[in-house]
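Problem: given the chain below (242 residues), write out its structure.
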Amino acid sequence: MNISFNNKKQFEFPKEITVKNFKYKITVDYVRKKNSSVVLKEDSLAFRLPSYLSQKQKISHFEELLEKIQRKIVKMPSKQESKFEEYFKKGGFEFANEHFVFLRKERKSVSLRENVFFVPQSGWKIKELEKAVARLLSKRFESRVKEYVLALNLNSFNYKIKDVKLSYVDSKWGHCTHDNIIMINIKLLKVPKEVMNYVIYHEIAHIKVKNHSIGFWEEVMRFCPNYKKLRKYLKLNPPKLF
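Solution.
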C-alpha cells in the first residue's frame, strides 16, 4: 500500500483498508515505547508506533505491520452478515406479527413512530443500531407483555407483582427483583407460548421463594408441571431477536 504525501511533504497513512470485502478503519498513534504494534478490533486496525522513529522508519514499520495483519485477517473465518444487518439493508423486518420498516433521516438518534424506525444517515455502527432498535421494540411491546404476565399470574399464583419490564439482555431470560419487579427478555416473544409461560411462572414463583431450592421447583410445578421439558427446549433453542 502506498503512503501519500501532502503539499508540506508530510506523509499520511491510509484512513481505511478493505480485506475480504470488509472495510477496516485505520488509526495511527505515536507512543513512547520501543516496539511498534497493531491491534485488530471489530471494524478497525489500531497502529501504535514509537514517536522517536524517523519518517522513513514509521512508514516501514506501518507497512510491515499492515502486511502481517492482512495475512492474519485472510486466514480468519469470513465475517458473517448479521440477521439485523440483512433486515436493515432490505429496509424492514417482521416481529410479533407486525411489519417494521427503516427510514434514514438527518438525525442524531434512532426513534420509532408507529411501525417506522427513523435512523441516522451516518455515524452509527450496525451493532449500535441493532441495540437501539431492540430497546425501542422493548418499549413498544412492554405494556402488552405486562398485561399478559399479570393475567397469567391472576389465573395461577395470584401473587403481588410490583411491576413488569420487558428488556433486551444477553444474560438471562427473566428475573425477579427482591421487591418483586419481574423482567422478561424480549427474545421470548420469538418462542412458543408455553415456553414463554414457563419463564413467567419461574419468575412469579420467585416472589415466594427467592432461591432455586426444591421448594422453589415445587412451586413452579404447581402451574407448569412439564417445566423440565420446556427448560430443556429453551436451552437447546435459545431465541434471537433478529
